[in-house]
Amino acid sequence: MSRPRVITISNQKGGVGKTTTAINLGAALSERGLRVLLIDCDPQANATSGLGVNSKELEASIYDVVVLGRPLLEIAVPIEHVPGLTLVPSTVGLAGAELELAELPLRESRLRLALDGLSDFDYVLLDTPPSLGLLTVNCLVAADALLIPLQCEYYALEGLTLLTHTQSLVRQSLNPSLRLAGIVLTLFDQRTVLSSQVVAEVRRQFGDQAFTTVIPRSVRVSEAPSHGIPITQYDPSGRGASAYRALAEELVNRDSRVAA
Predict the structure, then answer these.
(1) Is 259 inside any structural domain?
(2) Least buried of 20, 97, 120, 245, by fewest C-beta within 10 Å?
(3) Phi and psi dihedrals of 215, rounded to 5?
(4) Which positions ≥6 away from 204 have C-beta within 8 Å?
(5) Distance CA 94, CA 16 (A)
(6) Does residue 260 lie in a domain region?
(7) Distance separating alpha carbons of residues 159 and 69, to the nearest angstrom
């Protein structure tokens, strides 16, 4: 069996729809019949709770993998209400991992080593903390590609510049094959001129590195995590679900061209 595509979903700025994108892109990919592993690498554990898993009841999490060296699939949790989607959960205990990782051998590569030999999935999605610490670096080192959610707001491009610079540094020293999967524009509000201006500026600066699909600001998308289900199930015919399905299709098509 072939190795899965490993994609890190990252932006050091909070509130950009990073975890929302991880959950809903994973669900949309699984709807297409693909096997998806979502790894929650954020101590806030929002991807975990957003899929209906209570982190307080877990005996183990991604912490046990990156810090203690436990095999990844031992702690994987199939998401029964989203066929094809499996979660490696997080807990608040991961918050101390940054300090512990600093003292460990191969501190930037522990997640990559945990993924070695994994062949049961088509995609692995890594949801990162809103920071550029060792947890995020582990995700960048483990990944084939970086997907950047970017909110349609005024300060968005400043954070994007920092993240693409970090990608460049990781490519130079730790993961030469790391490419940019694309920039996905999120929280688009068609009622505001600013949202349209941000979209236009990103497309001007980054061209086809920005996905054609734009994720709209939606109350229904915001509500779905509180019910522990993705938007594709919470509001399957709504604008948010349609957008994430379109993003999944666009991502698969891009990956097909890269692999060709």
Answers:
(1) no
(2) 120
(3) -90, 120
(4) none
(5) 21
(6) no
(7) 32
The single residue listed with the structure tokens 């094959």 is 177
Query: CA 28 to CA 72: how far, in whole Å?
Result: 23
Q: How many domains does the chain have?
A: 1
Rounded Cα–Cα distance for residues 229 and 202 (Å) = 31
Tell me what pLDDT residue 260 has: 56
CATH number, domain of 239, equals 3.40.50.300
Query: Does the residue 258 lie in any domain?
Result: no
Structural domain containing residue 33:
5-253
Q: How would DSSP label each residue in the chain?
A: -PPPEEEEE--SSSSSSHHHHHHHHHHHHHHTT--EEEEE--TT-HHHHHTT--GGG-S--HHHHHTT---GGGS-EE-TTSTTEEEE---GGGGGHHHHHTTSTTTTSHHHHHHTT--S-SEEEEE--SS-SHHHHHHHHH-SEEEEEEESSTTHHHHHHHHHHHHHHHHHHT-TT-EEEEEEEEEE-TT-HHHHHHHHHHHHHHGGGEEEEEEEP-HHHHHGGGGTS-HHHHSTTSHHHHHHHHHHHHHHHHHHHHH-
> What is the average pLDDT value for the chain, to the nearest integer?
92
Q: Is the whole-model pTM more than 0.90?
A: yes
Cβ neighbors of 223 (< 8 A, separation 6 or more) are 234
Sign of the CA dihedral running 243, 245, 249, 255: positive
Tell me if 90 is assigned to some domain. yes
In order of 23, 64, 90, 174, the CA distances from 100 in angstroms are 28, 12, 16, 20
* pLDDT given at position 256: 82
